[in-house]
Design brief:
Length: 211
C-alpha cells in the first residue's frame, strides 16, 4: 500500500516482486484495502517506519496462528517487555477472520481498535513476540493529538477509552525505560487530550500526497 510516494519505495518493492496498490485517504482506508484484496491465508502488516530485526518472526507468527484460538500475533520492539493493545506496526492475522468491512474510511489513526474489536468478538487471543523490530516514527510531534482526535471519533466521549489510552501511554513509556520518556508521560497525555477535545482539527494527519 503506497501513499503515492516520490522516493525509491515503488522501485525497491517491485524489485522484490511486490504488487503495488495506491491510496490517498489514510491509515484506516489503507488497512481496509488490504483486507479486501489479500488472497493468502495470512495477512502481515509491516509499517513503513518499522525495521524488522528478527527474520524468523513470520515463521513464528504462522506457527502461532495454526492454533485456532489465536487471532493475532504482534511483533514487539527491541527491549520492550510490557505488552499492550494491538499495535499494527508488525502484525500478522488470518485473512478468514477479517472478511467484510472492518475499518471506517474516516478513521486515520487508532484503526487497530476495530481489528482488536473483531478479535474480541471472535473470542480469540493475541500473542506477542519480543525483540522483533525497531520503530522509528517520524510523527512524534503530532502523534498524541492525532491519536486523541481519532479516539474521539471512534468512541465519542468515552471515559473508558481515555483510561485505556492513559494505560497504553504509561506502558509505552516504561518500555522505553529512559527517565526522559517517563517524565514525558503527562505531556503526551495532555497533547492526547488536546486532540481528543479538538478532534475536528487533528483528525487527519497532514501527510501530503507523495510524501
Amino acid at each position: 500500500m503506497d501513499h503515492f510516494s516520490n522516493d525509491e519505495t515503488i522501485a525497491i518493492a517491485q524489485s522484490f516482486g511486490a504488487q503495488i496498490y495506491y491510496e490517498k485517504e489514510g491509515l484506516g482506508a489503507a488497512r481496509q484495502i488490504c483486507f479486501n484484496i489479500v488472497e493468502t491465508p495470512l495477512i502481515a502488516f509491516v509499517d513503513s517506519d518499522v525495521y524488522l530485526t528478527d527474520p524468523r518472526f513470520f515463521d513464528v507468527a504462522a506457527n502461532l496462528l495454526n492454533n485456532p484460538q489465536v487471532g493475532a500475533v504482534v511483533g514487539m520492539s527491541l527491549g520492550h517487555r510490557l505488552a499492550y493493545g494491538l499495535p499494527a506496526g508488525l502484525l500478522v492475522l488470518r485473512r478468514c477472520d477479517f472478511a467484510g468491512q472492518i475499518i471506517p474510511a474516516a478513521i486515520d489513526a487508532r484503526e487497530t481498535y476495530f481489528i482488536q474489536r473483531r478479535i474480541e468478538r471472535l473470542r480469540l487471543k493475541i500473542r506477542y513476540v519480543a525483540d522483533c523490530m525497531k520503530h522509528d516514527s517520524g510523527l512524534r510531534n503530532v502523534k498524541p493529538e492525532w491519536e486523541g482526535a481519532n479516539t474521539r471519533l471512534i468512541k465519542g466521549l468515552s471515559f473508558g477509552e481515555l483510561l485505556f489510552a492513559f494505560k497504553v501511554i504509561v506502558l509505552l513509556s516504561f518500555n522505553n525505560r529512559g527517565l526522559k520518556n517517563r517524565l514525558y508521560v503527562p505531556i503526551f497525555y495532555m497533547k492526547f487530550m488536546r486532540g481528543f477535545l479538538e478532534y475536528y482539527k487533528w483528525r487527519r494527519l497532514k501527510r501530503p500526497i507523495g510524501s
